[in-house]
Write a structure and sequence with these properties.
The chain is mainly alpha-helical and 271 residues long. The protein has a domain of 178 residues. Helix content is 73%, strand content 0%. The protein has 13 helices and no strands. Helix 5 runs antiparallel to helix 13, helix 11 runs antiparallel to helix 12 and helix 11 packs parallel to helix 13. The longest helix has 29 residues. The radius of gyration is 19 Å and the shape is globular.
Length: 271
């Protein structure tokens, strides 16, 4: 299947499921705030990248290469693991700088350990199996730089309906607010970092899943305010700049014009 057709199929599936589910959930939430339909629709929209991935793999028959990337660790270097763990370090450092101690959110404690574990299955796993597992991988075959920009914009636009579903984290931020600006900046920085993690981690899919999970987990676990949001964004910016400079230095002297790894051996090669 041609690459462009693969991308169109994936994105059409994702946005058709997500926007249908989340727009319907938004309408219901403004009419019947206690409706039992809101949560299932919310979950269905969030699972759209995973659903699109399954359909993609059925169509392309690239299961072997995909699962190899999911389980491949022998090529992953220490720096890739360090980037994967960076959300933990950034969150802890930010919290200590702003609050002079680790300030745990009381609501998170009340939710219990199960909630922290559940966060892995709502967001990180269904999203990254599709976003970095399929979409970024295909976009990177066109251009790494374009893949970074397109992936960031797609990820941001995909989240927008959540701002209209009453009860969501995004709705509490407000669509026209400082919180919305912080959300967009975080999406951009974290998306770019995961793009480099894709390269440095040799296309391993588990690393961005863990990165995404640590962002969500510690974002929920630790208290935040305007100052901590600003500090957090600045540190993420510094981390991204450090990664870019380090990767550029590593690539210098190579003949490649753009950082793009070839497909793994055993790939079907169908574009």
């Amino acid at each position: 299947m041609a690459l462009n057709k693969r991308l169109k199929m994936f994105l059409t599936t994702v946005f058709l499921i997500t926007y249908t589910s989340w727009i319907l959930a938004a309408i219901i939430s403004h009419t019947y705030t206690d409706s039992r339909l809101i949560l299932p629709l919310h979950l269905l929209g969030g699972a759209s990248p995973l659903i699109a991935t399954i359909l993609y793999l059925i169509k392309t028959k690239e299961w072997k290469n995909y699962f190899y990337r999911l389980a491949n660790f022998h090529e992953v270097k220490f720096v890739a693991w360090l980037i994967t763990l960076s959300p933990i370090i950034i969150s802890v450092v930010t919290n200590l700088l702003v609050f002079n101690q680790l300030s745990i959110d009381s609501g998170f404690i009340e939710m219990g350990i199960f909630y922290g574990f559940a966060l892995l299955f709502f967001g990180p796993i269904p999203e990254e199996l599709g976003w970095r597992g399929v979409l970024f991988n295909d976009l990177n075959k066109i251009s790494f730089k374009k893949a970074q920009i397109y992936m960031m914009l797609i990820w941001l636009v995909w989240h927008l309906p959540l701002f209209f579903i009453i009860g969501t984290y995004q709705n509490n931020l407000g669509i026209i607010s400082l919180g919305f600006l912080f959300f967009c900046l975080n999406i951009a920085l974290q998306s770019f970092i995961m793009g480099y993690l894709f390269l440095i981690g040799k296309k391993n899919i588990l690393l961005p899943i863990l990165f995404h999970y640590f962002v969500n987990l510690f974002g929920e676990m630790l208290n935040r305010n305007i100052v901590s949001e600003i500090v957090n964004i600045v540190i993420y910016g510094v981390v991204l700049l450090t990664i870019i400079l380090g990767h550029t230095h590593q690539q210098s002297g190579h003949d490649k014009q753009e950082p793009s790894y070839e497909d793994f051996k055993g790939s079907s090669g169908n574009e």
